[in-house]
Write a structure and sequence with these properties.
This protein has ten helices and 14 strands. The chain has about 350 residues and is of the alpha/beta class.
Length: about 350
C-alpha cells in the first residue's frame, strides 16, 4: 500500500492527508442545472443536500474542459473568479465531505447519441476510428492542455479531488481503445493514448489534491474478457503516473447506455468483481459504481474499495446516511422510472419521479 493512503477506523480513509469520512461517494452526474454557463442555486442546493459527514466525496460532473468539448447544452465549463463556483465548493465541503469535480471532453463531429443504443455498431466504431486517426496532433495537444488549465482553475476554487473522465466513450476513453485508436504518434494505444503524461502533468500542479481517473472496465465492442484484460493492464501502468483513486464504470454512450446504466435484472453491484481484481495489482483506492441499491453488503467490504452511488442519492439525498444509521424504513427508494435520464428523453435537465424537489 502506498504511503499516501491509510485506512482509518470506522471505514474511513486518509489519502494525501485528506480524510474521507466514508467509502461512499456521490458519483458524477450532469444535472443540466445551469444558466449562462454557471451553476444555479438549484445545482448548489442539489449538491449540498447530498453532502454530509456520512459521505466521502461529492463529485460535480461532468464539467467540460472547453466550450467546444461539451456533451450537451446543459454541460458546464469552469469559469474563473465566479461566486457561484466558490459557493458550490463551499456548500459541498461544509460538513467534512470532500469536494470533487469530474473534468471531461466530448469531442466528436457527430452530436451526442440520444437513443439507448445505435442500430449499426460496426459503422459507429468505424466512424470513431476514422475520426481519431484524422485529428492533427495539435488538436489533441489542445485538449490535453485544456485539462491542465481546467484542473488549475478547479484547484483555485478549492476542489479536493479532480476526476478525469476516461470512460463512457468520452474523448480520452477513445484513445484507450485499441479498436478505435490506430494513431502512431505520442497518443498511440502503445503509449496509453498519452494519458500517462497527462496524469504526470496534473500531478505536477500540486501534491496536495487527489487525482481520480474514471475508466470503463468493459465497453461492449469486443469480448468482455479481452476488453477487461486490456483495460486492467492500462490501469496498472497509469496508476504509476500518480493516480490516487481508480474509478470503474462501463460502457460507451455512442454504442449503448445499457452498460452505463445497468438494469436491476443485471444484478446487484454488477461491476464489483472487476474492482476486486484490481485490489491484487494496485495500491490505491478503487471506486466502483453500478447497482448499489442496498449498502449493507458493502459495510465490511475490502478496505480499499469505495463505492459510487448516484440514482439512490438522486431519489433520496440522505440515502447513505439513512443506510449507515439504520434508518432503512424511511429511505425514499429509486423506482427506476428513468426520469433522471433526461437527455435521452429530449429534456434539458434532470428530474426524479420519487423526489418531490426534482419531480418537475
Amino acid at each position: 500500500m502506498t504511503g499516501s493512503l491509510r485506512v482509518l477506523k470506522n471505514n474511513q480513509l486518509m489519502i494525501r492527508g485528506k480524510k474521507l469520512n466514508s467509502r461512499f461517494f456521490f458519483a458524477p452526474v450532469n444535472t443540466g442545472f445551469t444558466e449562462n454557463n454557471l451553476p444555479t442555486e438549484k445545482l448548489i442546493d442539489f449538491h449540498q443536500e447530498r453532502s454530509s459527514s456520512y459521505m466521502g466525496i461529492n463529485y460535480v460532473g461532468n464539467i467540460a474542459v472547453g466550450e467546444q468539448y461539451k456533451s450537451n447544452g446543459g454541460t458546464l465549463t469552469l469559469q474563473p473568479n465566479t461566486p457561484e463556483w466558490k459557493s458550490l465548493v463551499n456548500n459541498i465541503k461544509y460538513d467534512g465531505c470532500l469536494s470533487g469535480i469530474q473534468l471531461a471532453c466530448r469531442y466528436y463531429k457527430n452530436d451526442a447519441q440520444r437513443s439507448w443504443r445505435v442500430e449499426n455498431k460496426t459503422l459507429t466504431i468505424h466512424k470513431l476510428r476514422e475520426f481519431i486517426s484524422s485529428l492533427e496532433k495539435k488538436q489533441i495537444d489542445k485538449i490535453f492542455k485544456s485539462f491542465i488549465e481546467s484542473a488549475q482553475t478547479a484547484l483555485v476554487y478549492g476542489f479536493d479531488v479532480i476526476q478525469i473522465h476516461a470512460a463512457h466513450g468520452y474523448f480520452l476513453s477513445l484513445l484507450l481503445n485499441e479498436k478505435i485508436n490506430t494513431r502512431k504518434d505520442q497518443y498511440s494505444i502503445d503509449n496509453h493514448g498519452g494519458l500517462f503524461q497527462l496524469i504526470q502533468d496534473l500531478r505536477s500542479l500540486s501534491s496536495e489534491y487527489l487525482i481520480d481517473m474514471r475508466f470503463s472496465c468493459i465497453e461492449g465492442i469486443s469480448n468482455d474478457n479481452h476488453e477487461w484484460a486490456m483495460r486492467k493492464s492500462q490501469i496498472m501502468t497509469l496508476e504509476q503516473a500518480g493516480l490516487d483513486i481508480i474509478s470503474l464504470s462501463a460502457g460507451m454512450y455512442d454504442l449503448s447506455r445499457k452498460l452505463i446504466y445497468p438494469s436491476k435484472n443485471d444484478g446487484y453491484g454488477v461491476y464489483i468483481n472487476f474492482a476486486k481484481e484490481l485490489l491484487d495489482c494496485t495500491d490505491v483506492a478503487i471506486n466502483v459504481s453500478g447497482n448499489f441499491w442496498n449498502l449493507s453488503p458493502l459495510i465490511d467490504a475490502e478496505e480499499r474499495l469505495t463505492f459510487g452511488v448516484c440514482r439512490p442519492l438522486i431519489a433520496d439525498p440522505d440515502f447513505v446516511k439513512k443506510s449507515l444509521t439504520g434508518d432503512l424504513n424511511n429511505i425514499n427508494h429509486c423506482n427506476r422510472s428513468g426520469y433522471c435520464h433526461y437527455f435521452t428523453q429530449g429534456k434539458s435537465y434532470l428530474s426524479c419521479k420519487v423526489n418531490p424537489k426534482l419531480n418537475h
